[in-house]
Amino acid sequence: MAVTKSTWEPDSWRGFAAGQQPEWPDAAAVADVRARLREVPVLVFAGEARDLTAQLAEVAEGRAFLLQAGDCVESFRETSSVAIREKLRVLLQMAAVLTFGSQVPVVKVGRIAGQFAKPRSSATEIVDGVELASFRGHTVHSDEPTAEARVPDPERMLQGYYQAAATLNLLRAFTKGGFADLTRVHTWNQEFVASSPQGQRYEALANEIGRALRFMEAIGIELARERSLHEVNVWTSHEGLLLDYEEPLCRQDSLTGDWYACSAHMLWIGERTRELTGAHVEFFAGVHNPIGVKLGPDATVDEVIGLCERLNPQRAPGRLTLVTRLGAGRVRDLLPRLLVGVRDAGHPVAWICDPMHANTFVSASGRKTRRFDDVMAELEGFFAAHREVGTWPGGVHIEFTGENVTECLGGSEAVLEDQLDHRYETLCDPRLNARQALDLAFRVAELMRG
Ligand code: PEP
Ligand code: CO
After folding, report:
1. Long-range contacts of 181-185 (CB under 8 A, 24+ apart)
2. Does some domain include residue 218?
3. Which residue is closest in CA terms to ligand 1's atom 3?
4. pLDDT of residue 262
5. Containing domain of residue 261, as a range?
6. Which of 173, 273, 347, 402 could pair with 87 as two cysteines, CB 3.0-4.6 Å apart?
7. Is the distance from the beta carbon of residue 357 to the nearest atom of ligand 1 less than 6 Å?
8. Each residue's pLDDT tens digit, 217-236
9. Could you tell me the distance, in angstroms and rounded to a whole number, from the CA of residue 271 to the centre of ligand 1?
């Protein structure tokens, strides 16, 4: 039986089946970590989550576009400011390209500052011929390929909290303290990107933005006083998978009395844990953050409407974002009926496309990879389906990194299959490198105009 709103508590999910949770060896140790997480300062405020909801309402209503992007999984080993800065740089570049190309506001949400826990299709994986518990993220265990390293350790949830706090602190400083100032639009082009065709295309776009700014100044607009030119909001998000982490970070807002998950501004429910009667849906039904739900090729119209009713009974625009990840080959066939079903049921949702997760395959050399062309093909299908139905293609959800990695194949300066080993660094899924991500932004801007 569903718990009603008035009886919902952060631990109500414990009465429901929770998929994809670690088997902690010591229940008392988990309880101790939970107690400590209940005492720590929040990472985000309820008011911020409400501001993001308001921006996502603009997406749901067809007046803004959502760019949600970042790592597949963050690493406890990657703590330097440089890595965070490089990710932010590419995110700002992509947002500039999308805003300039589409002429609508772009809501920027990182898969960052808390994207640590991974759902897995299989309980075990083979590493160098040895069968081990599948890697579930650094807030659960180490990725080292030994049986001992893969034993879940709840102390890691605290470490994840502190790393998220440090990452978010830097993100706030960069986005409010000059780095994200639009007058610095040129400086977001990295050297290894600048020499590529899309890097040069970006340079031309940055010149145009610079000219537009000087024009505004010339006609008497005081640019120094325009806050939106000098500061941006980059919101945080992650998959709300690990309920022993999310539950103790819930806080009741003193203003409204509503509960919020204070680990990130936006959280999403993954494809593997979105069942209506499951613990994740129960948990997220009770918190007031904006929520995403991933929808794979098996999602039925009835299931999706059920999720809308359960997660957004008030039908508030901005509360719910549906993230379709259907596959390049199936999106044209499967997406229109979901769009029609949800529209006809009268649910306001933001529809965004994750063109990554249904286009993964294993290369001949054994690397998990994705083809840039498949990613683009799913995006093209997404835009075409929305155009056919008359709904708003509200955004993209991608996995990328600011580094020059070789994890996804293709792109205009193509990564080839025999180059995958050169710089394959992801702990989980293959990410677009900075060049591929910028290339994607230009192509999506064209799809938006088309
Ligand atoms: C992910 O976003 O990394 C992920 C696991 O996605 P999905 O739930 O869509 O498979
Ligand atoms: Co992933």
Report:
1. 181/229, 181/230, 181/231, 182/96, 182/209, 182/213, 182/229, 182/230, 183/210, 183/213, 183/223, 183/229, 183/230, 185/96, 185/209, 185/210
2. no
3. 72
4. 98
5. 12-180+231-449
6. 402
7. yes
8. 999 999 999 999 999 999 99
9. 6
Q: Exposed, middle or buried: residue 371 (CB in 10 Å: 0-12, 13-18, 19+)?
A: buried
Q: What is the pLDDT of residues 23-71, one digit of tens each?
A: 999 999 999 999 999 999 999 999 999 999 999 999 999 999 999 999 9
| CA of 111, closest atom in ligand 1 | 2
Q: Which atom of ligand 1 is nearest to the CA of 239?
A: 2
Would residue 106 count as lying in a domain?
Answer: yes
β-bridge pairing 259-261 and 266-269:
unpaired
Residue 140 lies in a domain: yes
Q: Is residue 3 part of a domain?
A: no
- Is the distance from the beta carbon of residue 247 to the nearest atom of ligand 1 less than 6 Å? no
Overall average pLDDT of the 134-147 stretch: 97
* 72 Cβ closer than 6 Å to some ligand 1 atom: yes
How many distinct structural domains can be found in the chain? 1
Structure tokens at 350: 């933001």
pLDDT value, residue 3: 47
Cβ–ligand 1 contact at 347 (below 6 Å) = no
Is 70 near ligand 1, meaning CB less than 6 Å away?
Answer: no
CA of 218 to the centre of ligand 2 (A): 46
CATH number for 374: 3.20.20.70
